[in-house]
Amino acid sequence: MGIDFEKFNKMVDNKELKKQMDAAPEYDDVPKGKYLCDIDKMEIKETKSHDKLMFSVQLGIKETIDAPKKQDKRKIFFNRVICGNKTTDKWNDGVAIKGVVSWIEKLLDEGDTLEFKNYSQFAEEVLDIYQDICPQVEVQVAYDPDAFNPVTIEEVFDK
Q: What is the pLDDT of residue 1?
């Protein structure tokens, strides 16, 4: 089934669209660096294709610590599929979940742990941690968009 582009072409004033595009700022990705961030969202949700579950985090940059230019008020996203991965010795759902648990445990008090029993319990605990802890803290992260683990929590600060 193809897209009827003509339907959309008829909806556009090309001169106005060109003016808007000319006035729009240049877009560049958030560069590799260190940032002080708020955790704006953290949840377990379905992928867009609705056939897998993923851990999803949205970070709001508060301050650029070590990056080429100011990125304040921009967003960093971290998504990890935790159900529906290919099964190999190096990568499978268990490895993915353990990585998410390790990432989240950096937000918890020393000695506190996050346990996976099943997906619904895990999603509830992730939501509880987001609601209970994330509004009270900000995190210093190392961000590398080209890395498999693009966001590493380096330090957690009370607000």
A: 56
pTM for the predicted model, two decimal places: 0.83
Tell me the two tokens of residue 3: 């897209």
**What angle, 0 to 180 degrees and rounded to 10, lies between the N-to-C axes of helices 93-105 and 119-132?**
20
Rounded to the nearest angstrom, the gap between the alpha carbon of residue 129 and the centroid of all alpha carbons in its chain is 16
Helix (H, G, I), strand (E, B) or coil at 75: strand
Rounded Cα distance, 127 and 117, in Å: 15
Token code pair at residue 97:
């979940």
Tens digit of each residue's pLDDT (9 = 90 or more) over 71-111: 888 999 999 999 999 889 899 999 999 999 999 999 999 99
Phi-psi region of 33 (alpha: psi -120 to 50; beta: other; left: phi over 0): left
Q: Please state the φ and ψ torsions of residue 79, each to the nearest 5 degrees.
A: -125, 135
73-91 burial, b at 16+ Cβ within 10 Å, e below that, comes to eeebebebebbebeeeeee
